[in-house]
Amino acid sequence: MAFAGQVVWITGASSGIGAAMARALAAQGAKLVLSGRNEAALAELARNCGDALVLPFEATDYAAAASAAKKAWNWQGHIDMLVNNAGISQRSLAVDTAFEVYERIVAVDLLAPIALTQALLPRMAERKSGRIVMVSSIAGKVGSPMRTGYSAAKFGLFGYSDALRAEVAGLGIKVHVIAPGSIRTDVSRNAITADGSRRGVSDKAIENGLDPADAVDQMLSAIAADEREIIMGEGMEKEIGELRRTPDALHDRMAAVVAAGYAQKMDEGASE
What we know:
Elements: E1 7-10, H1 16-28, E2 31-34, H2 39-46, E3 52-54, H3 62-76, E4 81-84, H4 99-127, E5 130-135, H5 148-168, E6 173-180, H6 204-207, H7 212-224, E7 229-232, H8 235-243, H9 248-271
Parallel strand pairs: 1-2, 1-4, 2-3, 4-5, 5-6, 6-7
Helix pairs in contact: 1-7, 3-4, 4-5, 5-9
């Protein structure tokens, strides 16, 4: 039970991967902060998750995110792991897609998780402990047709996370990025189309994808094993993700460069 007694904050917890992760962590004895927009669904989930705090807010309301971060931290006096899972997908050709759709996707899938991470980061740094988990996508490793905005935002999560990992490696904070392929959720039904409307139908690949509970068990095992990039999928999706995996040695080299820079600044400060 790697997460027993730990405080874990999950966004997008009302359904899909988020809800499955909440149930799995609750079974391990974790204390959960459950966030999303559907307060009723969050409350229903919380009733079956033991020690849980329901903390609904709109992900793109960045002021609300800062306030939520304070409430989440104060609930138990710390957060051991933040799982940035909330997101929205896309199904539309770029040539047909309104720019406002891109703004919405980037706001939800990239800026919102960055805002929440930034709100928690100083607290984790002061405590010298914590995990940041970003739920990206295989589409964040390889650009996927009909998902130009989605791929752009999910690629951005990898870039932010890689840079952040190097910066906080010496502060006891671990950064993980999950790249799911097809998992049986409502991600395709909830995807937005060229005019920003909800798609309303699923994809065959999604319907034939991994069971969310099974996928989450694999994700949590990988996090507990300190895997930095967690590629989730089967067949070609898995192969593509693995081909684009950033080598751990490169992460370590970036962290070493950052550490050397910090050491040099400290030496320069001491000599003044």
